[in-house]
Amino acid sequence: MRIGLIGTGRIGSFHAAVLARHREAGSLLLADADPARAARLADRLGATAAPSVEQVFTWGVDAVVIASATEAHADLVVRAVRGGLPVFCEKPLAPDLNRTLAALREVAAAGGLLQVGFMRRFDAGYATARGLVRSGALGRLHTVRTTTADPAPPAAAYLATSGGLYRDCLVHDFDMVRWVTGREVVEVYAAGSDAGPALFRESGDIDTAAAVLTLDDGTLVTATGTRCNGAGYDVRMELAGELDQVSVGLDDRTPIASTEPHGPPAASKPWTGFLERFAPAYEAELAAFVHLVRGEGPNACDGREALAAFRIAEACELSRRERRRVRLEELPDLPAL
């Protein structure tokens, strides 16, 4: 199998290294808007560098992995499926909801095979929590709490095209709320703060966010996030039911300290970022894509699943801007099949 990978920045380089050592992935063709960057990575991995992105679609590949800048995702996905190529795309499919819907209509029209990069579906902790919820071990869920906290703000240039904290960051939490609980979000109320570094105000973004989500069975969810968690990278999910409660992401590297006299000590080596924390999940995600292309496994996160999480993020952003509750039914969606 020959895989074309577009985008050799931070996440693209990570994906390329994973695929290069995957025994079933075969050869790699790397492309980037900066051909020199793709060439340097190809040299390190023993892969082939294309002089431009165009060659990924003309030099004969069996599948495409898209890890380029967000603005390019939708066009590349559409081009891949129109060419009959299975495609893995990092989230989001597009910077906004309308372009996401347009891309997914093209995927459906072409009968394309699309997997979207929501890697937490492959994390052992979240998978265990999902099993406990679905088995009834926790009893009726009444409260779910999620948090995603980055240790430091990203570059200003990244913020300008990220889509905002809800769409770029907390969308992973929203995906986990659906995937773990098996329920749908019906209403959100969200707020945000830009009281931190000036680059957030300058880009029209927020550095800290909070949202209350109501699920279709009445379960309440609180989702919080920040770009300014100096203690380290912190991603957790707590699920409380009438019989028991569990926590995902609570281990000896969680960057939180107890103030209790006999509480656990602070982490001596807190997580530094998402690539370190979720490295095994990223590897499993790409392995699942390889198996999907080979016809040996299911699609772990198709376009509709990705859209559901993005619609929640979009509803939260609308709620924050308009300072009101937002029902998910207010937002456009794809018609049910």
UniProtKB/TrEMBL annotation:
Output this protein's name.
Answer: Myo-inositol 2-dehydrogenase/D-chiro-inositol 1-dehydrogenase
Q: Which organism is it from?
A: Streptomyces avidinii
Which ranges carry the GFO/IDH/MocA-like oxidoreductase domain? 126-242
Q: Does the keyword Transmembrane helix apply?
A: no
* SUPFAM superfamilies linked: Glyceraldehyde-3-phosphate dehydrogenase-like, C-terminal domain (SSF55347), NAD(P)-binding Rossmann-fold domains (SSF51735)
Q: Which UniProt keywords apply?
A: Oxidoreductase
Cite the EC number.
1.1.1.18, 1.1.1.369
- Identify the InterPro entries for this entry: Gfo/Idh/MocA-like_OxRdtase_N (IPR000683), GFO_IDH_MocA-like_dom (IPR055170), NAD(P)-bd_dom_sf (IPR036291)
What lineage does the source organism belong to?
Bacteria, Bacillati, Actinomycetota, Actinomycetes, Kitasatosporales
Q: Which residues form the Gfo/Idh/MocA-like oxidoreductase N-terminal domain?
A: 1-118
Instruction: Write down the superkingdom of origin.
Output: Bacteria
Provide the top EC class: oxidoreductase
Which Gene Ontology molecular function entries are recorded, alphabetically?
Answer: inositol 2-dehydrogenase (NAD+) activity
